[in-house]
Amino acid sequence: MRSELEPTTAEWRQRFETINTFMLDLDGTVYLGDQLFPWSLPFLRKITAQGKQYIFVTNNSSQSARYYVEKLTRMGIPVRSDQIFTSGEATRYYLDKYSFARRIYLLGTPALEEEFREAGFTLTDDRPAAVVLGFDLTLTYEKLRRACGLIRQGVPFIATHPDFNCPTPQGPIPDCGAMTALITAATAVAPKVIGKPHQEMVEALCAKFDIEPANVAMVGDRLYTDIAMGRQAGIMAILVLSGETQREDLDGSPFQPDRIAEDLGEIAEWL
């Protein structure tokens, strides 16, 4: 069944036709786990044929852009590393924008550590400029102890994204937001959070790709990250019902999309 919110009004159609960049969430929007949705590749081909661009935007900071390029390539999607944007990259942009010294204490996976080192950061617990928490699948008590000690000393605390759970085929697992809650409970210090839905994610995206918010659409399956970011940043927010959010979840939600589509295939019909 197709969405009842067809783009029929002249005002909305005019706005939609100005979109030249689609920011696309990944899991639940383009694929589910390791299974590519059948409508995703035709949608991307149609965007390309019309001279528009797409950028894959994810809060998952446990993996590098290289990982997503390899995964999408295996699925048959043509993609370059510069078309992948993670909350980890947005965090590095934030640190540079506000002139943090390139010495940080990082709680992250080896993949995230490698990306920070390649960007010129020194990872250390000796007088760091910030404590940065990512989605750390290698989190240990010792890492937590050191991080809490530094934060209590006044070292700025930054988290790559707010998600409490990460979906997996086996069910949800604790994500960065849950780890943040633990540290905040121990230190009484809340972090600066960078990823979706926060404005810093959009600022970093627009700066990197030299795009204007008025010409951008955010497409995703989560109200509290994808849609919230779009609405708060003043960019078009399109909800797809192919992932986490169901139509009944919109009742009472403070984050309402500009348009609802069953999936990327329906959006392709709008183009």
Automatic annotation (TrEMBL):
<feature type="binding site">
    <location>
        <position position="27"/>
    </location>
    <ligand>
        <name>Mg(2+)</name>
    </ligand>
</feature>
<dbReference type="InterPro" id="IPR006357">
    <property type="entry name" value="HAD-SF_hydro_IIA"/>
</dbReference>
<dbReference type="InterPro" id="IPR023214">
    <property type="entry name" value="HAD_sf"/>
</dbReference>
<feature type="binding site">
    <location>
        <position position="196"/>
    </location>
    <ligand>
        <name>substrate</name>
    </ligand>
</feature>
<comment type="function">
    <text>Catalyzes the dephosphorylation of 2-6 carbon acid sugars in vitro.</text>
</comment>
<feature type="active site" description="Nucleophile">
    <location>
        <position position="25"/>
    </location>
</feature>
<dbReference type="Pfam" id="PF13242">
    <property type="entry name" value="Hydrolase_like"/>
</dbReference>
<protein>
    <recommendedName>
        <fullName>Acid sugar phosphatase</fullName>
        <ecNumber>3.1.3.-</ecNumber>
    </recommendedName>
</protein>
<dbReference type="InterPro" id="IPR036412">
    <property type="entry name" value="HAD-like_sf"/>
</dbReference>
<dbReference type="Pfam" id="PF13344">
    <property type="entry name" value="Hydrolase_6"/>
</dbReference>
<comment type="similarity">
    <text>Belongs to the HAD-like hydrolase superfamily. NagD family.</text>
</comment>
<feature type="active site" description="Proton donor">
    <location>
        <position position="27"/>
    </location>
</feature>
<dbReference type="GO" id="GO:0016791">
    <property type="term" value="F:phosphatase activity"/>
</dbReference>
<feature type="binding site">
    <location>
        <position position="25"/>
    </location>
    <ligand>
        <name>Mg(2+)</name>
    </ligand>
</feature>
<dbReference type="GO" id="GO:0046872">
    <property type="term" value="F:metal ion binding"/>
</dbReference>
<feature type="binding site">
    <location>
        <position position="221"/>
    </location>
    <ligand>
        <name>Mg(2+)</name>
    </ligand>
</feature>
<keyword id="KW-0479">Metal-binding</keyword>
<keyword id="KW-0460">Magnesium</keyword>
<dbReference type="GO" id="GO:0005737">
    <property type="term" value="C:cytoplasm"/>
</dbReference>
